[in-house]
Amino acid sequence: MANADPLSSIVAALAREQIIPDVLPVAPALTPSVLFSVVYPNGAEANLGNELSVADTQDEPEIRLAALNAPWDQPAGAAEASYTLAMLDPDAPSRAQPLYRTFRHWVITGMKGPALTANSADALNALKTHPSTTPYRPPGPRPNSGMHRYIFLLYQEPASAEPFVVPQGEPEYGATLEERRSWNPVEFAQKYRLKLVGANYFLVRAEEVAAE
């Protein structure tokens, strides 16, 4: 019988594609509290392991948030929760030989839920209050490198009077191909006291090219 709990379904989907343990540790166990969707301008959407194409995912997507439990570390009367989102590929250059695990595709801080009065599709999108720390780089797997997992990790930022931003000069500002390689999201979260509250992902199959 299908699992009726959407939060448990997230963990099961991550384990199914071995994102747990390839990217996220088995312990402490992930306990999601926020559902979110990743929607591209052309309507393509990440849905816990569906397959998309390179063409589907060329432009920066919008994020739609749905908090199901009380925000983490938010005292009564505090400002609304804000989030950091990271997108990564643990299969660079391939899942069989992940020499650059993980490849950092996108990091953006200061995301907030839309206004409660939102009544249109666009108004459901999370508010991007800061420019991206790592600019969005679309999937571009090497030919013949098989299936790649593109993972979105949503972190709740710690409650603070000041907006959270990654300090200038940190590795997350590196935008070149080489600077995006071998990034560790677990260490990133620990460094800045970010709480992982949600995850999503899609798959992209690399183009198959005949050997010359």
Word description of this protein:
Mean pLDDT is about 90; it is low at about 70-75. By secondary structure, the protein is an alpha+beta fold. It starts with 5 loop residues before the first helix and ends in a 7-residue tail after the last strand. A hairpin with a 5-residue loop joins strand 1 (about 35-40) and strand 2 (about 45). It has four helices and nine strands. The longest helix has 11 residues, at about 5-15. The protein has helices spanning about 5-15, 20, 175-180, 185-190, and strands at about 35-40, 45, 50, 60-65, 85-90, 105-110, 125-130, 145-155, 195-205.
Strand order of the largest sheet: 3-9-8-5-6-7
Output the radius of gyration: 17 Å
How would you spell out the order of helices and strands? HHEEEEEEEEHHE
| Helix coverage percent | 10-25%
Concise account of the structure shown:
With 212 residues, the protein is of the alpha+beta class. Helices cover 13% and strands 27% of the residues.
Topology, element by element:
Elements: H1 6-16, H2 19-22, E1 34-39, E2 45-46, E3 50-52, E4 62-67, E5 83-89, E6 103-112, E7 127-128, E8 147-156, H3 177-180, H4 185-192, E9 195-205
Parallel strand pairs: 3-9
Antiparallel strand pairs: 1-2, 1-4, 5-6, 5-8, 6-7, 8-9
